[in-house]
Amino acid sequence: MAERDTHKYHLKQGGKVVHRGITNDLSRREQEHQSVYPGSKIKQVGRRTTKDAALKWERTGGKRRYKKN
Hints:
Layout: E1 6-13, E2 16-23, H1 26-33, E3 41-49, H2 51-59
Antiparallel strand pairs: 1-2, 1-3
């Protein structure tokens, strides 16, 4: 079974999502984003997951897919 060590996140600046991504270290990634988006904050999306599942989420634009009835 693959290790669940990857976080999905939204980077928010002033209540608006300016970037979506994945990382294995949220604090470090938030610091890296500060040069481009000063004052921005990372909001974790969901729980930690596997890298493969996180990459799939990222490729679909970082959005949930809902089933249509």
